[in-house]
Amino acid sequence: MTRDFNLWLSGFRDSIADYEYYVDFEKVHRNIDKIKIELNILNSLVGSKSIESDFEKLIKKYPEALKCIPLLLAVRAAEIYAIDGDGAFTYSFNKPNISVEQYKTFMHKTGLFDLMANHIINNLVDYATGVETGLDSNGRKNRGGHLMENLVESFIEKSGFIKDETYFKEMYIHQITDKWGIDLSAISNQGKAEKRFDFVIKTDDMIYAIETNFYGSGGSKLNETARSYKTLALEADTIDGFTFVWFTDGKGWASARNNLEETFDVMEHIYNIRDLENGIMSEVFR
Fold this sequence. Notes:
about 15% strand
């Protein structure tokens, strides 16, 4: 049956964020637990009327408390570099490397003394948890890269395939060749290219190599992806017992629709999330 590209593209989604996409709270709490003692030590400075002298006493007695200071500035580093008219300094927070006076200067100029002494915050553990949550949101891009992969895998499993028995994750061309003795030189440039597929499904009569991706925004990468997968699909068609399948989605494709349509026109097995929801797995993988 001939499919309508425009109708197919109109079903693409804006997002596929799941509930765990936004913040990895387990990671947040793990990171805070590592420095909770030091944060509680620094808590004694909150509301201090003599914060400079109190800080000096505290650091001399508990120098390990320094290690949680970078997080208070939303920095994931053991060292912080700073420069102004008074000079340039690299502050180490794992092991003190300069005078306490200079650390006091750092605390003043970064605003941390003001944050603590003037009750802008009441509890450094709570404050650091908030900072850590914000930093973790930067990890959404990495988590987002796996969302489509995870979604497709859930449909593979619902279709009855078993991991490492009838479906396999992240397989290279040479692994497919070694496992099933199939010649894939047509898609590996005679063995010179080492392609890795997101999934491989093995049925009695066919090896299905699967790629997955989701593009929420446009960019030049989409045109390159569409062209390369078009080439891959045409090369795969020359190999008996081997089929290339592509699951893709995302409104980002609107900016590269022409290249995607060219691939759609020559590739039999290109599907979106709506296809998955409508049972394409049971139709294709037999």
